[in-house]
Design a protein that fits this description.
2 domains, 4 helices, 4-stranded antiparallel sheet, 31% strand, elongated, alpha+beta, Pept_S26A_signal_pept_1, single chain, 11 strands, Umud Fragment, subunit A, 7-stranded antiparallel sheet
Length: 176
């Protein structure tokens, strides 16, 4: 024979039944839904082993936006046909170190923007089966041109394939 176990009644606080409480609850839920929609429309969390090797972080928070990214920030852009070894449309995350009007000098021993060292030697030449002379150059970035580099050794970046155009940017990244 089983004994009946009393089930405690669920008591609802009197204020929970009030119209004001219900309105506040609905407003709170609506605010959360709006915030979630905004975040999903404007941000993405990304993971890339290439980014780990190139910029030191495999995880990034990307704020989706078109147009250029400020110098000093991490830009997310799609590569074009100039970038061998990757399909056009592949997304890259690189640090933007130069913008329109900046003087860029790429040499075998390092890369300088306006006299400041921004990247080390051209260290992936053996992988590309090229000599340094294929990439050494001095240029002034034109309107809508940006110079992007990885922040770690062995990065495949603007030193090898030239400036990123403003129209290639799809967002700005924050390293996680």
């Amino acid at each position: 024979m089983r004994h009946a176990v009393p089930i405690p009644s669920l008591r609802v606080h009197p204020r929970a039944r009030s119209p004001r409480f219900l309105v506040m609850l609905l407003v709170g839920i609506a605010a959360l839904v709006c915030a979630a929609q905004y975040a999903l429309r404007h941000y993405r969390v990304g993971y890339s082993q290439e980014s780990e090797q190139s910029i030191g972080s495999a995880w990034t928070l990307v704020r989706l936006k078109t147009g250029p990214v400020p110098v000093g920030a991490y830009g997310v852009f799609v590569v074009d046909g100039r970038v061998s070894r990757f399909s056009a449309g592949t997304r890259f995350v690189k640090k933007i170190v130069g913008g329109p009007g900046d003087l860029v000098e790429v040499k075998a021993t390092g890369t300088w923007v306006n006299g400041q060292l921004v990247a080390g030697p051209l260290d992936i030449l053996p992988v590309l089966h090229q000599q340094a002379t294929a990439f050494e150059r001095t240029l002034i970035l034109g309107r809508g041109e940006y110079f992007a580099v990885g922040t770690r050794p062995h990065s495949y970046d603007s030193r090898y394939w030239g400036p990123v155009r403003a129209g290639q940017f799809i967002g700005q990244a924050t390293l996680l």
